[in-house]
Amino acid sequence: MGLSQDEIFEKVQEALIDALGADDDEVNRGATLVGDLGAESIDFLDIVFKLEKSFDININREELAPEDILTNDDYVKDGVVTANGMAELKRRMPWADMGEFEQNPRVQDFGNLLTVGDLCNYVGSKIGGES
Q1: How confident is residue 131, by pLDDT bands cut at 50, 70 and 90?
Q2: pLDDT of 50-77, one tens digit each?
Q3: Domains in the chain and their CATH numbers?
Q4: Based on C-alpha coordinates, what's the Rg of the chain?
Q5: H-helix or E-strand spanning residue 76
Q6: Could you read off the pLDDT of 8-30 as tens digits, one per residue?
Q7: Strand, helix or coil at 32?
Q8: pTM score, two decimals?
Q9: What is the spatial distance between Cα 4 and Cα 103, in angstroms, rounded to a whole number?
Q10: Which residues contact 57 (CB under 8 A, 6 or more apart)?
Q11: Which residues pair with 80 in a beta bridge?
């Protein structure tokens, strides 16, 4: 089911417009789901459902939101993700760009990390890995 990057983006964009009521020009690859598009935790359930349906994939919530890392004392000290925590996030979320978050890895800012582009990379990794 080889979809191009553009085809993946179009389907992800459609799901986000539908789930969040955003305008198509707002849903660009660099837009953050929470900060720019106003997604709330309840919206993620809808987004995941729409992406699963659209791409015929299964999405584990932990893959998109590894809360078990963010609430683990081994990975977080004083509200900041430790070096071990960053390594674990990168291992679990290789499709996400952690560069900006890594400069100031406060747990409270993690929700504002994911961009539309990251979501496209994630979906691409899911459909690329299933044959």
Answers
A1: very low
A2: 999 999 999 987 888 888 999 999 999 9
A3: 5-129 (1.10.1200.10)
A4: 15
A5: strand 76-77
A6: 999 999 999 999 999 999 999 99
A7: strand
A8: 0.88
A9: 32
A10: 51, 123, 126, 127, 130
A11: 77, 106
Task: Report helix, strand or coil for 115.
Answer: strand
Residue 106 DSSP SS3 = strand
> Span 93-98, mean pLDDT?
94
Q: How far is it, in rounded angstroms, from Cα 5 to Cα 77?
A: 38
DSSP one-letter code for 34? T
- Is the distance from CB of 105 to CB of 69 less than 8 angstroms? no
Give exposure, 77-93, as e/b (b: 16+ Cβ within 10 Å).
eeeebbeebbebbeeeb
Structure tokens, 66: 């590894």
Q: Which of 45, 41, 39 is nearest to 17 (CA)?
A: 39
Do 105 and 77 form a contact (C-beta atoms < 8 A)?
A: no
Residue pair 50/13 in contact (Cβ under 8 Å)? The answer is no
